[in-house]
Amino acid sequence: MITNSIESLCDSAQAFVKQQLDLCSDRGLKVRLFETYRSPERQLDLFNKGYSKLKRGGMHEYRIAWDIVFVKEGKPSWDKNHKWKALGQTGADLGLDGLCWGGNWTSFTDLPHFQVVPATPNDQSLIRGGYTPPGPFPILKYKDRGYQVKLLQSLLTDINIDGMYGNQTKERVKFHQSISGYLTVDGVARNGLWKYLIRKVK
Ligand SMILES: [Zn+2]
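Above are the sequence and the zinc ion SMILES. Below is the predicted complex in structure-token form.
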């Protein structure tokens, strides 16, 4: 049985998926969530049928991975011609960087696949050991105000820390998105930008 409910994922993964589906919709990508939690029985079945390289211990079993596919004529579609790169970019903008997206894997690519930690032996062994990954930072945009905006402004540098997301903040966000080289330049602060700025300050 295929499970595709958001609720079957861990809390932080749920938060990422909700933000990602919104972002896909904003960007005109016709997609749907295809699979979230996967039981060990289904994983073994997929392996036996040759659809998966993993016999057990995949990240879907740990409720931190999900697959998003395109919708064509009302049906899920894996067609290579869909805008998979644009889908991967929504993950990057939400801070699901590098090997969190199966489209960036080198041994084999898994275009619909996202997970909240990179697919490295170290990161994945933390998950298998019971580690719960943190959820995303808040999305902030033009005209927002409050302490979270102040926090963002303190990371942006060369800006008034007044808690108001005005034009100055928006332009500064765009500047950092641009020099990051991988974030979409749209002036909206999402998890990917937060992560980028925090790494820079460190
Ligand atoms: Zn997957």
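The radius of gyration is 18 Å.
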